[in-house]
Amino acid sequence: MSAASGKNGAVTSRFQDPLEDETCRRFVLPALEQADWQEDQIHPQYPMTRGPHPRARRHPQERPLKADYVLSSSDGQPIAVIEAKRSRKDPANGFEQVKRYARLLDVPFAYTTNGHRQVTQWGSAFYVSDTSAGAAVG
């Protein structure tokens, strides 16, 4: 798998959806910068392990999981995970995926966005908001 760093440290690969990459580039990164997240706190294409799989011997998992972004505190501790979706898709459709990532990373915040709307989990509360007016993710 080939990967290259793009503007603002965004990592693209030939397997990543180019339309999701556009959401990251056009909406997520600018929103994070506007919210004063520092470059060393934004971790693109963050790899995760799935944990034990009951049928791992018979059906090995070929690709590792990767969150589009993980945000960390100033001491490097992961605190939030962000999953970008194509701009025409409802971000709620990716929320189960980002909640799973948040559980795997044991972080309290999970976001999924298509650049126009975002779905947020904060603890056990869920919020849906319009981001078209430039509302920041995170």
TrEMBL record:
Domain Type I restriction enzyme R protein N-terminal: 22-118
Segments for region (Disordered): 38-70
Domain of life from the UniProt record: Bacteria
Protein name per the record: Type I restriction enzyme R protein N-terminal domain-containing protein
Organism: Actinomadura latina
Upper classification of the organism: Bacteria, Bacillati, Actinomycetota, Actinomycetes, Streptosporangiales
